[in-house]
Structure formats: structure tokens, C-alpha cells
Amino acid sequence: MSALPPWNDQAVQALTSHVRRLCPDAGVEVVAHIDSTNTELMRRGHGCDHPPTLLVALSQTAGRGRMGRAWQSQPGAGLTFSWGMHLAPTDWSGLSLAVGLALVEALDPVGQWGLKLKWPNDVCWQAAGTTRKLGGVLIETQIGAAPSPARRWCVVGVGLNLQTPDIDGAGLAPVGWNEITGETTTPSGPDLLQACMTTLVPAMQAFELHGFGPLAERFAQRDALRGQTVVLSDGRSGAAQGVDAQGALRVLTAQGPEAVHSAEVSVRPIASQDAPHV
Questions:
Q1: In sequence order, what are the beta bridge partners of 127?
Q2: Which of 24, 54, 146, 213 is the one with CA 20 to 30 A from 204?
Q3: Domain range 9-220, CATH architecture
Q4: What does CATH list as the number for 229-272?
Q5: What pTM did the predictor assign?
Q6: Phi and psi for 162 in degrees, rounded to 5?
């Protein structure tokens, strides 16, 4: 790629050195344009033992969010990247929550900015009684080949708004990192990414060994839905009561307590009841 500020050669080299301290055999690439960083890493992981890879795109033309939603990004306005590595956890449940928690703790270690996690995969900002979306997580896996089918190529895609997008749409209103922090200039993508990788790589390694259970208490401190009345995508409503050891959302409905899994339904706060499901 041709160097584009702040992604000059020095910044890319510093990022590469940082990632390799966390994962010595990792590859790091920064490209100006791509269809989707997740799609590209999924292509590379098919049928081969691909090394851990961080792929950063300055703009995406076919970025994807959860449930097939589009995630567009323009140069300089957002931070979009995917991290691919092989994992073989005993239970994959709760991985998106572990990843989201790693990102929030990287960007807002002591909670001074009000970053929260909206189950199952949104990084949000809560301030003055409102909740706005800073970014999201999309995780995709491929089943490994024999003799280790339990070992999968896992790609974690992350999109974060550096600047507040000027868009209208259903769901949570967006917010940029510059608005949260009050910065007058665009935040440094390379610096934020280094911070994210510092927590993301160890979080995924720990998840492989221990699952989500040990993280449940820390997630509770960042849970944007806890205590709120939420509407499920099947029309029922109830009070969100945190998550269980597998990362399922606990909701007390009129029919009784239920554990809601991300593959089954979406949720939205009752305050957003006039909007489609998010």
C-alpha cells in the first residue's frame, strides 16, 4: 500500500513489533482498500494452517456486521481490522463477550469514558441517559481438518468509529471516539489498535483455556443492558439480569427466567421500542 497518515511505514513497523511481542509468529498487514477484512482472512484460513494474522483496512466496501448487516468505513473515519488465529476451546459460548470486554478494557481501563457492552457484540457509550454505538464485533470460524476438527480458524472482526458518522438508521445512534474523549482531531488509529491488541490477544488465549466463566463478573461491570427492560426479537419483553457462565443473556419474562443465546434472538432496550431490532 502507499503510506497514508497516520499509517506510515514507521507506524506499521511499530504495530508489527507490538503484535509479535504478543504472538511471535503473527503476520501484520495494512491495506488501503478491501471488500472485508473478515472475508479475506476467512478465505486465507480455508483448508490450511494459516499463521495468526492481523489485517487492517483503511476502508472497506463490503464490511459486515452481525446478522448480515453492512458496515461501511471511509479512510480516517474508522478503525476496521480483523484478527485471525487458531483456537480449540472446550466451549465457544461467550467468545464475543470476551472479545468485547477486552476492547472496552483496552479503550477505557478504569471506566472514565463510560464505555459499555450491549449484549452480544456492541461496544457502546453511555452518557446523560443515552446509549450510543461506538463499534461492533463479528466472529467467524472454520472447522479444522482431521485429525484436529475441534481446532478452528477463528476470525475476529472489529469496527470502531474514530469520528462520529453522519448517518441515520435504525437502532442505536452512532458515536465516534473523538466525541467521547472531546478530541478536536481524529484519534490515532495505530495507537488505538495497539491498545486493543494488547488486551485482545491474551483474552483469546485465556478464553481457549478457561472459557467465558471467569470473565462474567468483569462483564457485569460493563453490561449496558443489566437492569433494563428489553424486547426480544420474538416480541416478548423482560428484565435483563446479566449473563450466565456461558455468556447467555438472562431475561426474566412473563413466562419465567430464560437464557437467551445470540444465535436465537436479538434484544433491544424498551426505550428503543419504535426501532427495528438491533
A1: 130
A2: 146
A3: 2-Layer Sandwich (3.30)
A4: 2.30.30
A5: 0.88
A6: -80, -40
